[in-house]
Amino acid sequence: MTERPLTAMIDPAAGPPDCAAYGRAGGWRGARAALRDMTPDAVIDVVTRSTLRGRGGAGFGTGQKWSFVPKEPAATRRKYLIANADEMEPGTFKDRLLMEGNPLQLIEGMIVAGYAIQAGHGVIFLRGEYHVALDRLTRAIADARATGWLGADILGSGFGFDIHVHTSGGRYICGEETALLTALEGKRAQPRSKPPFPQVGGLWGAPSVVNNVETLCNVPHIVANGAEWFRALGLGPDGGTKLYGISGRVRRPGTWELPMGTPLREIIEQHAGGMRDGYALRALLPGGASTAFLDAGQVDVAMEYGAVEKAGSRLGTGQAILLDDRTCPIGMLHNLEHFFAQESCGWCTPCRDGLPWVERLLAAIEDGSGAPEDLDRLADHARLLGPMGRTFCAHAPGAMAPLASGLRLFRADFEAHIHQRGCPLRQAA
Amino acid sequence: MATIHIDGRPCPARPGENLLQACLEAGADLPYFCWHPELGSVGACRQCAVRQYSGPDDRTGRIVMACMTPATDGAILSIDDAEAREFRASVVEWLMTNHPHDCPVCAEGGECHLQDMTVMTGHAVRRYRFTKRTHRNQDLGPFVNHEMNRCIACYRCVRFYRDYAGGEDLAAFATHNDVYFGRHADGALENGFSGNLVEICPTGVFTDKPFSAVYSRKWDLRGAPSVCTHCAVGCNTIVNARQDSTRRVLNRYHDAVNRYFLCDRGRFGHGFTAAPSRLRAPLARIDGRPTPVPVQDALRRFQMMAQDGPVVGIGSSRASLESNFALRALAGPARFSTGMAEPEHGLARLVADLLRASPARNPTLHDMESADAVLILGENVTVTAPRAGLALRQAVRQAAFDIADAARIPRWMDAAVRTLGAEACSPLFVATPGPTDLDPIARATYRAAPDDIARLGFAIAHGIDPTAPDVPDLPEDAARLAADIAATLRAAARPLIVAGTQYGTAALPQAAAAIAAALAAHNSAAALSLILPDCDSMGLALMDGLSLDAVRALARDGGIGTLVVMENDLTRRLDPAALDALLAAVPHLVVIDHTATPLSARADLVLPSASFAECGGTLVSTEGRAQRFLQVLFPDPPLQAGWRWARDLAQAADPGTAPVWQDLDDIVAAIAAEIPSLAPIGRAAPDAAYRLDGARLRSEPPRISGRTAVRANISVRDRPPPAAPDTPLAPTMEGAYGPAIPGALVPYYQAPGWNSVQSLNRFQQEIGGPMRGGDAGVRLLDGARQDETPRPRSAYATAIPAPFVPRAGEILLLPEPRLFGTEELSTLSPPIAARVEAAALRIADDGGATPTIALRLNGQRVVLPVIRDPALPPGIALCPPHMALRAFAAPAWAIVQPHGDDTP
Predict the structure, then answer these.
(1) What does pTM read for this prediction?
(2) Can you give the residue ranges of the 4Fe-4S His(Cys)3-ligated-type domain (chain B) (predicted)?
(3) Mean pLDDT of B459-466
(4) Rounded distance between C-alpha atoms, residue B634 and residue B610, angstroms
(5) Which of A160, A161, B221, B298 has the most neighbouring CB atoms within 10 Å?
(6) Which strands, in side-by-side order, build the sheet including B778-779?
(7) pLDDT at position A57
(8) Residue A428: other Cβ atoms inside 10 A
(9) DSSP secondary structure string, B573-616?
(10) Residue ranges per domain, chain B?
């Protein structure tokens, strides 16, 4: 049995551990090691050497991200550490598992990360619908305050840290770190231009680091067990374990902690139990709605950043959505683009007005009123909105990833819809 | 200068500016929406995409947004690149998916930035075949129309309204292509600069509501450069007119003064020119009733009056230098009054003297924007000089700019600078009796009676320079604040002190001047700005004359045969008893005015003068800048400029010695020759002989189509072009025009491909810099300059007022003007009148609960609604001048009367 540090303490039947139980089961080792024995720079160093990369989707080196924060003690400069718990990527539910199953692990991760960047203030930006997680985080924070793990002078280290939980009003764009900061300030959730990067000028202009929940949960284990231990957990170049998930018509949809780089086929067949009877895998989005489709022939790809990219997509959140052979790919695309169009923040023109056009074109094709030139318009949008830098943030490029790959993979389906004036699957049914 | 290469053409660029600015300055046509020269870049619209290459060997390059990319030396970019062009056309195509294409019925049509940019990108064929989203519009009050379906979501409106002007009741709502810019509910836009939305909006979402009621296409409007007459700041405007009426006021860029923005009083106050109270014929009192008479009859009557004793002329701070000067010539310098009563008369002179003698700089509005520490000493600037208040609002951003500079983020990167400086505000101290709009961004406010504010000011001066007189018995909290302010101003690189005459207290401008002088000893950038009330207050202060009090004394002694009052409603200056006594002692009263007033109703002879739109003239702003306004309307006789009436009266009285000025340039030359302090005014604008390419300048755009003229089947000309001896502008579309026309002569902005006000970019030497053809106006009171040897500091004023002591049973009424309702002429404009709120008195919380308070002042009893403000010091009351008490304009003790007590 491979090591599963992130989920080891999660027991759905027993509920999350309290501070004492968490400590008995091996928790707080990372925080103790960091605050008692390490300098902030030493913590950044071990995390950098561990090769931990952001688990929210972008895969940026965590230690590197922290290293950009101005090095001043928390006592003399206001800084923020923010846990991005706004898990709104369609098909993704890994952070929820971590927060509901073991909220103290996130809190410990935030204490260590806060110590590393010398931020005295922690914020958990939580998806508004995560009521159970809110309840458990709130209790865990109270518990941690009561036992001295949060507040002034933790472990006599002189470092003080506390955590505020903010529940999101509910926009997908809040998952984008700069839009998250803007929303936290009480403004419209719109991304910001960089520079300034949040590490220099983030929340209310103060240096801020935004890390994904899963990323932060890895931190105490790295500090407690060392960079080499963490690197060895992965099967390939990327260290650690990863929460992988499968949704779609498989026998056992779910999420599992597995070594980074586990082949997709193994996740689908061994952990999700393979496709349900009567369904064949047609294509899949490997890491959430904003990653490009891989086709059924690419399931041997190792689920790690480089390999998935090489296959033409992105690891993203590592939570795959499977398309089977009895579901209309155009309908699926329409569903996705409806989501993206609706969730455009409205700031920049191509995204705000381009995505709704894409959505309506797909709706027209799906309901039988599509025209051959509609495919050109869709391709235009994929081409014009796809590259980074055309739009203000990565929302539209993310929306174009499934569209561009879908236009290539499902060309015949598109043409059939247009020529038969409707969805062949629905017409057959 | 850096060099950038645009499609192979080397072009100069200023290091640090962005590529969009550089392209526009190079004369390139690069479309944009969200960028605004004064608001900076945010990268929202994605319209200014160009391809940038990393070097000469880079063959692929990448698409960048020009507005978000710094122009570095050697930068290589292509506007003409096929992919960049396709992307720009696509952006317009996306914007057009929901735009209603209602140009034929849109007030913006013909001067619409969206139209221009659409044509520029080449997007012509609509491929979006689905339905458009629609919005409900809101009633935003009397100034601005709202038509949200036209919105292209460039976010300029909220960036101006909220970020720049500090408004809170306009916001972006909803998301994706449902984004909605409006208020939380219908209602008048509260911010005093809301009218700028009309020019900020690149299409027809926000349009000028009063203008839409008298609408004409841009190409059917005549324009003339003008100067706002509704306060002393001297904002430059363009007045548009057609047929016999003014139609709207637009901003006219002056890089040192108002730049891109006007206040709502200035933009919507011009309606008084068409008010029912306009005077259009001479009126003589016949059988006790004002009766229209021919001009010759009127002049004959004056000839008779002039034989009954000396003529005394009363000028006006709302009349031009020319009209005042002509009246002065008629009456003689010794019998000319500034038309101001004490204390205003003395204060205007004091302000001129202080500015002349101050070793500190006399800042322009643009200078004020970059002050890094500001003290406002007893003046509610956002109402007495609204545009200056907007400039001060920008000053607090200096700290954010410093942070951005340190982070190497260009200042035009607006959102980034605001993010970094989110909690950084340069120091602004507001010391006023009552609340002001600038309080929320102030580091500290100090609420006290004017005398106590002056004491604070003197204490600050003493804190900076111990040789300045000390203030005895200053309360501990005030002393602490004074020390803090002194230290802050001393530490600042560009400190600015602002004061004025609002509270009728000489000690306030004196204290401000003392602080500025103390600072100037160490810091040549220290600046002093003093604010006067009216558009020509400074001109009169420089011209000088008797106070109204001196005129009253003269009348009492029987020294006045005829009183000639030029455009001055004395019922606003003298309380009823004083005015009655004055008029009773004067055999004849002649009033020259464009508008009937309670005073003109009592005149023996009334002569109708031209409003600012119907004549040319010169005004001197509070910073001492002489500026020319030019004629845009050509009314039929007998309407004529006030100075022509004064000239004609002089000729009627004594043809032998009367001046013979024929046109504006004659009298301007006469003023310059006679009054040394006004000698430079001839340079305020080119004279009527100015020619460009051998021709007069046209004042109308080339008429694109005659179809919008109502009588086009008969003639596309509204009326035959009249003679126009006072202006170098031809009153027609025939004439010269181009980007190099002098700033003082801009009748409208237009450039090939650019039909909206955004074409201003083509008229500037650089974006946000001076006009290519030279800036308008001439400074008469140049303050100390940084490059000159320090001026000697004049002696500090030593008359430090005693602490304010409240009186039992009395209350000190202080004039607290309003943006709308207390300025005389704008209040006659219907949209402004619609925004006037009833007079109310603001007092300290006296523990009372009555909704009104009864006062007795100079024998008049008045009952006013009362607002109790716990922050107000006890013993004073803030009262809007000229409203409930028409003549009230200076501090006065009023007796507080119990309700129901009507005993005199």
Answers:
(1) 0.96
(2) 83-122
(3) 97
(4) 9
(5) A161
(6) B617-620, B625-629, B778-779
(7) 86
(8) 7
(9) TS-HHHHHHHHHT-SEEEEEESB--TTGGG-SEEEEBP-TTSS-
(10) 1-96, 101-213, 283-341+545-618+635-663, 361-525, 810-897
Best CA proximity match to B482, nearest among B462, B456, B464, B507:
B456
User: pLDDT tens, B846-891?
Assistant: 888 889 999 999 888 999 999 999 999 999 999 999 999 999 999 9
CATH fold for the domain made of B810-897: Barwin-like endoglucanases (2.40.40)
Beta-sheet strand order (sheet of A254-259): A254-259, A241-247, A319-324, A281-285, A294-295
Where is the domain boundary, A308, A324, A340? A324
* CA max distance for chain A: 73
Contacts of A193 (CB under 8 A, 6+ apart): A392, B42, B43, B68, B413, B415, B416
Residue-wise DSSP of B272-333 = GGG-TTB--S-EEEETTEEEE--HHHHHHHHHHHHTTS-EEEE--TTS-HHHHHHHHHHH-G
Q: Which of A120, A121, A105 is nearest to A224 (CA)?
A: A105
Q: Which of A204, A341, A344 sits opposite B422 (nearest CB)?
A: A204
Domain assignment of residue A424, yes or no: yes
Chain A hits for B44, CB-CB cut-off 8 Å, are 347-349, 392
Please name the residue that has the structure tokens 């923040």.
Answer: A345
Range of the domain at A371: 329-428
A197 touching chain B per CB within 8 A: no
Pairwise CA distance, residues B867 & B508, whole Å? 26
Chain B neighbors of A360, CB-CB under 8 A: 130
**Cα distance between residue A382 and residue B90, in whole Å:** 13
Query: B168 near B195, Cβ under 8 Å?
Result: no
**How many angstroms separate the CA atoms of A15 and B813, rounded?**
70
**Pairing assessment for the beta strands B495-500 and B373-377 based on DSSP bridges:** parallel
Counted domains in chain A: 3
Yes or no, beta carbons of A347 and B45 under 8 Å apart: no
The number of angstroms, rounded, from the C-alpha of A255 to the middle of its chain's C-alpha atoms is 13
ipTM score of complex: 0.95
The predicted pLDDT at position B902 comes to 46
Are residue A82 and residue A192 in the same domain, yes or no? yes
- Cis peptide leading into B880, omega within 30 of 0? no
A120 and A30 part of one domain: yes
Helical (H) or strand (E) element with B629: strand B625-629
pLDDT digits (tens, 9 = 90+) for B575-614: 999 999 999 999 999 999 999 999 999 999 999 999 999 9
- Number of Cβ pairs closer than 8 Å across A and B? 116
Burial of B896 (0-12, 13-18, 19+ CB in 10 A): middle
Instruction: Assign domain B361-525 to a CATH class.
Output: alpha beta
Average pLDDT over chain A reads 96
Looking at residue B318, its amino acid is R
Q: How far is B280 from chain A (nearest CA, A)?
A: 53
Count CB-CB contacts under 10 A for residue B250.
22
Residue A167 belongs to a domain with what CATH number? 3.40.50.11540
Which has the closest alpha carbon to B463: B522, B380, B503, B505? Answer: B522
Residue A223 has pLDDT above 60, yes or no: yes
pLDDT at B732: 82
The C-alpha of A392 sits at a distance from chain B's nearest C-alpha, in angstroms, of 7
Q: Give the CA count within 13 Å in the CB-facing half-sphere of B707.
A: 3
Residue written as tokens 């060392």? A226
Residue linked to tokens 């349900």: A276
- Cβ pair B46:A185 closer than 8 A: no
CATH T-level assignment (fold) for domain B283-341+545-618+635-663: Rossmann fold (3.40.50)
Based on the fold, state whether residues A214 and A80 are members of the same structural domain: yes
Of A130, A208, A215, give the one whose Cα is nearest residue A167.
Answer: A130
Q: Grade residue B471 by pLDDT with cuts at 50, 70 and 90.
A: very high
Specify the CATH class of B1-96 in words.
alpha beta
